[in-house]
Design brief:
With 162 residues, the protein is α+β, with helices and mostly antiparallel strands. The protein is built from 3 helices and 12 strands.
Length: 162
C-alpha cells in the first residue's frame, strides 16, 4: 500500500469515528427522559427536548458549530475595518460576538446581516445585553459626528454609548 492510500485510509477511519461520535451524542440528546422526585413521591417519566447545559463540556463545541454559518455570512459581507487587504468585522469568543465597523452605516449593515443570519437558524439576540460603542478618532478634526441615529437589531433598539 502506498503512502497516498495509507493517508486516505487514515482520513476515512477518522471520518467514521467522528460520524460514530455524532451518532452517539445525537442518540443521547434525542432520547433524554426525566422524572421529578419530591420528598417520597416520583412523577411519571417525560421526554426532555433541550440542548446542552450552560457551562457543559460540549456546549462550546456545539455553539461553535451552530454559529459558524452566521460568522461566515458576516465575514463574506466584506463590510468592516480593513487593514491592507484583510477585512476585520467580527470577533467571536465563547458565546460573545463583537462586530467591528468603521462607520454608523457599516455597523447598521453588519447588524442587518447578523439579524438575517441568526433568524435563518432560529436564534435570537438578547438586546438588553447588546451594546453599540463608538471610539472617537485620535485626531479630533476627523470626528464626523457627536451623535448618531439609534441602531436596531430587527425591531429592537440597541443600547448606544460613546
Amino acid at each position: 500500500m502506498n503512502s497516498a492510500s495509507q493517508s486516505a485510509e487514515i482520513v476515512k477511519k477518522k471520518m467514521e469515528e467522528k460520524t460514530k461520535i455524532k451518532t452517539i451524542v445525537n442518540f443521547w440528546y434525542s432520547r433524554q427522559q426525566m422524572c421529578v422526585k419530591w420528598q417520597n413521591a416520583m412523577s411519571d417519566w417525560f421526554s426532555v427536548g433541550n440542548g446542552t447545559r450552560q457551562g457543559g463540556v460540549l456546549s462550546p463545541a456545539f455553539f461553535a458549530r451552530y454559529i459558524r454559518e452566521v460568522l461566515n455570512e458576516i465575514m463574506a459581507s466584506g463590510v468592516g475595518c480593513h487593514i491592507g487587504d484583510v477585512c476585520f468585522n467580527v470577533l467571536a469568543y465563547a458565546d460573545n460576538l463583537v462586530l467591528l465597523a468603521p462607520s454608523w452605516a457599516a455597523i447598521k449593515q453588519l447588524l442587518n446581516v447578523f439579524h438575517s443570519s441568526i433568524h435563518d437558524i432560529d436564534m435570537t439576540c438578547n438586546v438588553t445585553k447588546t451594546v453599540c460603542m463608538v471610539s472617537n478618532p485620535l485626531c479630533r478634526h476627523k470626528l464626523v459626528a457627536n451623535s448618531f441615529p439609534l441602531l436596531k437589531l430587527g425591531s429592537s433598539m440597541v443600547i448606544f454609548t460613546l
